[in-house]
Amino acid sequence: MANLNVTLNRLSLQNPILVASGTFGYARETAAFIDFSKLGGIIPKTVTPQPRAGNPPPRTIETSCGMLNSIGLDNDGIDYFIEKHLDYLLSLDCPIIANVAGHNAEEFKQLAEKLNAFPQLAAVELNISCPNVSGGVDFATNPELTQQVVSTFRNACDLPVIAKLTPNVTNVVEIAQAAADAGADAVTLINTLLGMAIDWKKRKPILGNVVGGLSGPAIKPVALRIVWQVASTVDIPVIGVGGIQSLDDVLEFLVAGASAVQIGTASFYNPGLAARLADELSTVLDEQNCESVSDIVGTLVLPEK
Ligand code: SIN
Asked: pLDDT tens for residues 179-228?
């Protein structure tokens, strides 16, 4: 059987299939539908230093081949997360990667110091790319801010650090390079694409926040392109996310250069999907004569010029 272990700098996972932040709650919600021990990792919903009420409703709408959300980082804050969710999460037979966001480097430092007390966490993913909150949480639109926030967090926390980046920029490679220069162990690509839905009869936007983040199969080609661009130019492991709903999708991301993947929107309609894909992956790798996942990562063959 092919070896499914993957190593992303300081982060080692038993397999490369994780569930994405914001699509899996704090795991209790999905416990009836999935065997957590089959997952490469669980990334719970983003937490911020203070509780946040999030954006006005409606906050989600289905689109063709995808979903728009404008949740606005609704959460109960880091202290509540530690008190009410972390024990449960850490009791699961699966690596847990906390996901955090802050308004400035100082808030990231506070988050880092609090999470540093939990070495049982596998890593922390920094959400520096949420498109739904105004006022400085989309640091990943700027390389200097990306570098500042990642290095601040890294200096205050011993856990492996993953930077989750946005596709809503002209040159994501320079942002990924900034995250790598700041000491990130990996980057997650991509967060949602900024979009909009309109009820033309009412002449109104459908989302309460007017705009929101597009996810699901509609964004897979964009995610693949960005994963490939970053993985082939920046020396940092990439975790691919965006529209994955089948084993073929997983393999496309691995061939494009992703060392691991996250299942996001698909978990809403099939919460057991990520575990099934992890089960099926070794069979396909065996058929491809791969001894380990790394044998297929980044194996894309480009046409000759
Ligand atoms: C949200 O809470 O608005 C979604 C999180 C994200 O897109 O980063």
From this structure: 999 999 999 999 999 999 999 999 999 999 999 999 999 999 999 999 99
- Domains of the chain, start order: 6-53+72-193+216-295 (3.20.20.70)
Q: Beta strand pairing status for 198-199 and 193-196?
A: unpaired
| Ligand 1 neighbours (beta carbon < 6 A) | 22, 46, 69, 71-73, 127, 130-132, 191-192, 213
Q: What is the pLDDT of residues 237-291, one digit of tens each?
A: 999 999 999 999 999 999 999 999 999 999 999 999 999 999 999 999 999 999 9
Catalytic-residue membership of 130: yes
Query: Which residues are within 8 A (CB) of 200 and not within 5 positions of it... i.e. 6 or more apart?
Result: none
Strands (E), 79-185: 97-100, 123-127, 161-164
Q: What span, in angstroms and rounded, lies between the C-alpha atoms of 125 and 187?
A: 9
Backbone angles phi, psi at 12, to 5 degrees: -115, 135
Pocket test for ligand 1, best of 71, 128, 165, 241 (most atoms within 8 A of CB): 71
Whether the upstream peptide bond of residue 237 has omega within 30° of 0, thus cis, is no
> Tell me, what DSSP letter sits at residue 160?
-
